[in-house]
Amino acid sequence: MKDIMKIFWSYIIGDGVETATDELFEARMTICRSNTCKSYQKPFKIKALERCGSCGCFLNAKARIDESFIECPKKLW
Questions:
Q1: Do residues 28 and 63 lie in contact, with contact meaning Cβ atoms separated by under 8 Å?
Q2: What is the maximum alpha-carbon separation in the chain?
Q3: C-alpha distances in angstroms, 12 versus 6, 23, 28, 31, 45?
Q4: Please, are residues 56 and 17 in contact by the beta-carbon 8 Å criterion?
Q5: What pLDDT does 44 receive?
Q6: Which end of the chain is more exposed for a tag (fewer CB within 10 A), N or C?
Q7: What is the pLDDT of residue 3?
Q8: Are 50 and 40 in contact (CB under 8 A)?
Q9: pTM greater than 0.90
Q10: Integer angstrom CA distances of residue 23 from 56, 61, 63, 75
Q11: What does the pLDDT read at residue 17?
Q12: Is the dihedral of CA 11, 69, 19, 39 positive or negative?
């Protein structure tokens, strides 16, 4: 299953982009879902549409990327 997910994310994000570990991804999503910054959005209660209201990014994609230029606009992760 991990290989399928790797292929999926390399297709979505692109080759050569580092992806976050499952632990890092879950930690980031937990921070976002806690809504401390009051920017978390989940339209129609659909998990796939979770977004950051500050930057507009879809969280399931943004939290998966492990590159130095990817960060929370509120500096929470």
A1: yes
A2: 35
A3: 10, 20, 19, 23, 23
A4: no
A5: 95
A6: N
A7: 63
A8: yes
A9: no
A10: 23, 15, 11, 19
A11: 78
A12: negative
Q: Where are the beta strands (DSSP E) in 14-72?
A: 40-41, 51-52
Q: The tokens of 15 are what?
A: 């080759």
DSSP H helical ranges for the chain: 2-13, 22-34, 59-62
Closest CA to 41 of 74, 24, 27, 33: 33
Q: Rounded distance, CA 26 to CA 8, Å?
A: 18
Burial of 28 (0-12, 13-18, 19+ CB in 10 A): buried
Backbone angles phi, psi at 26, to 5 degrees: -65, -40
